[in-house]
From TrEMBL:
Biological classification of the source: Bacteria, Pseudomonadati, Pseudomonadota, Alphaproteobacteria, Hyphomicrobiales
Known partners and oligomeric status: The complex is composed of two ATP-binding proteins (LsrA), two transmembrane proteins (LsrC and LsrD) and a solute-binding protein (LsrB).
Job description of the protein: Part of the ABC transporter complex LsrABCD involved in autoinducer 2 (AI-2) import. Probably responsible for the translocation of the substrate across the membrane.
Keywords of this entry: Cell inner membrane, Cell membrane, Membrane, Transmembrane, Transmembrane helix, Transport
Keyword Secreted: no
Transmembrane segments: 15-35, 42-60, 66-85, 92-113, 119-139, 160-182, 212-234, 246-279, 291-308
Domain of life: Bacteria
GO CC annotations on file: plasma membrane
Protein name (record): Autoinducer 2 import system permease protein LsrD
InterPro entries: ABC_transp_permease (IPR001851)
Family annotation (Pfam families): BPD_transp_2
Lipid bilayer topology: Multi-pass membrane protein
Subcellular location: Cell membrane
């Protein structure tokens, strides 16, 4: 079984890698602007927030749950972080951890409500998404916070040649998340609960506790994405997170996550976000209507779900 599992991962990664390499080669051939330092910087910069958004959904998919509130929670954390820095004068070193912590607490609320009510996480997070959006708009009245600390704005815009400083954060998060899932007991429990909840409970794993942990992690990752978005934009916009929902599902699913839980891939999700960024960049260079990006993402999700289902059937038959 381990051999089959490893081969499955290799197929997922090799397919995504092949698509990325082929897509990059085609874009480099069609557009001389693709390999310029500035275009690489723009593409990598767009990758930063998207990766954390994908991870935020990935950890709930790991336990067979859904988090519809990812974008709304991100928007709320963004304005709270902006308000702390502009209105309350909190330094970046205080405001950023507090904002991520608030995201984690909001995610934990999702988990507690899901566990205590017994209602599907889809319904719970759909409801809390509306609540988070309402609080966001109530706080800001749709007016952004513009006066962000220069150090945060510089972190969001500065670069070393084509490498944006902003990319440091998602690289560190990806490494830590990979270690957490592969090397720690809670990480392995997360996947065990998603793979077979009944067997996990019989083994002494708290299904409710792991579900709440997954939602808390999801909230913290959405909060981190929101902070990066504020740094990237140079302001705390109430609309941050409004377009995250489709992306949050596209990245882990294209990366090989099982919708029923038990299998997610940090590397697969990362490669999926690279592919999505490549597609978006290619459409910009080709001057294609940006609304087609949504169509392409939807098509990719359908293709990934079909492919994952086909692999599951083949593995079961084997």
């Amino acid at each position: 079984m381990n051999t089959i599992f490893r081969r499955l991962l290799m197929v997922e990664w090799s397919g995504l890698l092949a698509a990325i390499i082929l897509g990059a080669a085609v874009l480099a051939w069609l557009s001389p602007a693709f390999l310029t330092e500035f275009n690489i910087y723009v593409m990598l910069r767009s990758f930063c927030v998207a990766l954390l958004v994908g991870f935020a959904q990935m950890v709930t998919l790991a336990v067979g749950q859904l988090n519809i509130s990812v974008g709304a929670l991100g928007g709320l954390v963004a304005v709270l972080a902006g308000g702390m820095m502009e209105k309350l004068g909190f330094p970046v070193a205080v405001a950023v951890p507090l904002a991520i912590g608030i995201g984690g607490l909001a995610g934990l609320l999702n988990g507690v409500l899901t566990v205590r009510t017994g209602i599907n996480g889809f319904i719970i997070t759909l409801a809390t998404a509306s609540a988070f959006t309402g609080i966001n708009l109530g706080i800001t009245e749709s007016i952004p916070f513009y006066d962000m600390p220069p150090s945060l704005v510089a972190f969001g815009s500065n670069r070393f040649f084509g490498f944006p400083y902003l990319l440091i954060a998602p690289i560190v998060v990806a490494a830590l998340l990979g270690l957490f899932l592969a090397r720690t007991v809670p990480g392995r429990h997360l996947l065990a609960v998603g793979g077979n909840p009944q067997a996990a409970e019989l083994s002494g794993i708290s299904r409710d506790g792991i579900t709440m942990l997954a939602h808390a992690l999801s909230g913290a990752l959405a909060g981190a994405a929101a902070v990066l978005a504020v740094a990237q934009l140079g302001s705390a916009q109430p609309t941050i997170g409004a377009d995250w929902l489709l992306l949050s599902f596209a990245a882990p699913i294209i990366g090989g996550a099982a919708l029923t839980g038990g299998h997610v891939s940090v590397l697969g999700t990362t490669l999926a976000v690279v592919l999505i960024a490549l597609i978006e960049n290619g459409m910009v260079l080709a001057k294609v209507d940006p609304y087609w990006v949504q169509f392409v993402l939807g098509a990719l999700i359908l293709a990934a779900v079909w492919l994952n289902r086909w692999r599951a059937v083949r593995t079961g038959m084997g």
